[in-house]
Amino acid sequence: MFGLFTNLIVTALGLQTLVWAPVLANTSLIFTFVFLFNFLGEFLGGATFNPTGTASFYAAGVGGDSLLSMALRFPAQAAGSVGGALAILEVMPVQYKHMLGGPTLQVDLQTGGLAEGILTFLMTFAVLVIILKGPRSALLQAWFLATVTVTLVSAGSTYTGPSMNPAYIIEGLWMHPHMHRLS
């Protein structure tokens, strides 16, 4: 969806010829979504929407999750992810459906797995540093998270898309099994 929204914004502003415009639009979109989802999570009493973040904060000993709460949270997050993807497929106008897609393996399996592992580690590490040791301002945290996300997605785009999140891989394989041929 971010690709679609970025394209619509850049086109509406007439900035298609500027190399930096899609990067800035995409970073701004991710910033907005991160900020709003963080606000929504706080409003809902600590709700989280990303299984990777939940697991990494639990492993770091941060937060109030127990093993039982995580065992309940992970399936709910996965179900929400699949439900969201199905909803997007239903409401997406036909002229934009070609822009939808999940991560796709564009290199051999070992290289793709290594790339995803490194990117996931870097993203998780960056999130932990930004949230635990970074600025206290929610706006700055959201901007830093958006910048890191766009940077790592750009760095991994020639390998796997990239997903950097096991839930996205599972969702993408479930939704589009024909797009993930390993040969």
TrEMBL record:
<dbReference type="InterPro" id="IPR044222">
    <property type="entry name" value="SIP1-1/2-like"/>
</dbReference>
<keyword id="KW-0677">Repeat</keyword>
<keyword id="KW-0812">Transmembrane</keyword>
<keyword id="KW-0472">Membrane</keyword>
<dbReference type="GO" id="GO:0016020">
    <property type="term" value="C:membrane"/>
</dbReference>
<protein>
    <submittedName>
        <fullName>AQUAPORIN SIP1-1</fullName>
    </submittedName>
</protein>
<dbReference type="InterPro" id="IPR023271">
    <property type="entry name" value="Aquaporin-like"/>
</dbReference>
<feature type="transmembrane region" description="Helical">
    <location>
        <begin position="138"/>
        <end position="159"/>
    </location>
</feature>
<dbReference type="GO" id="GO:0015250">
    <property type="term" value="F:water channel activity"/>
</dbReference>
<feature type="transmembrane region" description="Helical">
    <location>
        <begin position="74"/>
        <end position="92"/>
    </location>
</feature>
<keyword id="KW-0813">Transport</keyword>
<dbReference type="InterPro" id="IPR000425">
    <property type="entry name" value="MIP"/>
</dbReference>
<keyword id="KW-1133">Transmembrane helix</keyword>
<feature type="transmembrane region" description="Helical">
    <location>
        <begin position="113"/>
        <end position="132"/>
    </location>
</feature>
<comment type="similarity">
    <text>Belongs to the MIP/aquaporin (TC 1.A.8) family. SIP (TC 1.A.8.10) subfamily.</text>
</comment>
